[in-house]
Amino acid sequence: MKMTMEIATPLATAKGAKRAVITKGGEEYLWKTSERTRTPWQPSNLTDPESNILDYCFTPTPEIARFVAAVEEEALAIVAKDPKTYLGSARLSEEEIRAKFVSNLKTSARGAANFKTRGRFGHLRFWNAKGQPLKDPTVFASDSQYQFALKVSSLWVGEKGFGLAFDLQHLQIYQDECPFKT
């Protein structure tokens, strides 16, 4: 039996946007990578001491690209069946809905492909290559490799578009061995 995604009715947030919880088969929609990836750059707000939410980007492996594309297509199909509920307008064509959608698979201005997700300190667990817990790291090196587990958490709707929120739950960090270690 194939479990399908469910998207709740969007509710207004304190900032005026809307969010709708996503589940799969009535449970949290969880997924984890089986392949390692890299990050092209540090989380954008890593140095902000006030921020507990970090935006992470990972180089999409074929596995990540297939998963994200499939999830986004499923979400688009759900929204297209009922655009009034999700986007506030029943008169949008499928083409107009797709034009408003903001994918998490992106390409930077310099041409680097990336998968954008987010992590919240206090909710995100970090692990070393041996599966031992790590303290919250302060540096994310582009030469390190990563595997992660995430939750497809919500559909967000803003003034200029809509998209999906992918929340990191676990991040395993594979760092190269120190060359000075004996």
Short description, anyone?
The chain is α+β, with helices and mostly antiparallel strands.
How does this structure look, described?
It is a single chain. The chain has three helices and 13 strands; from the N terminus they run ββββββαααβββββββ. By secondary structure, the protein is an alpha+beta fold. Strands 1, 2, 3, 4, 5, 7, 10, 11, 12 and 13 form a ten-stranded mixed beta sheet that branches. A three-stranded antiparallel beta sheet has the order 6-9-8.
Shape: elongated
Rg, please?
A: 18 Å
How many individual β-strands?
13
Order of helices and strands: EEEEEEHHHEEEEEEE
Distance between the termini: 53 Å
What are the key terms here?
182 residues, alpha+beta, ten-stranded mixed sheet, 13 strands, 18% helix
Which helices and strands, and how do they pair?
Layout: E1 5-7, E2 11-12, E3 18-24, E4 27-28, E5 30-32, E6 53-58, H1 62-81, H2 83-87, H3 94-100, E7 101-102, E8 105-107, E9 113-120, E10 125-127, E11 133-134, E12 145-157, E13 162-174
Parallel strand pairs: 7-13, 10-13
Antiparallel strand pairs: 1-3, 2-3, 3-4, 3-12, 5-12, 6-9, 8-9, 10-11, 12-13
